[in-house]
Specification:
The chain is mostly helical and 72 residues long. It is built from four helices and no strands.
Length: 72
Amino acid sequence: MGGMPTPAWILPAYLLFSHLTASEGTLSVTALIDPMLVLLLFFVIARTFGLRVMLYLVVLWGTSDFYTFGTT
């Protein structure tokens, strides 16, 4: 399909997709994995460093991500 995944992604992707058919529903549901991992990251940061640091990093992450939008 043209993708070149890293070796760290090949095993989880194989375990996740080997028993599923490629359909729009499957891809839509699995597209939620990335936002869930981001939320998990912020949760772990809040538990480790506190709510104030987590909120600071949410703002920093949210404002620094979009400067490259449309440049690729």
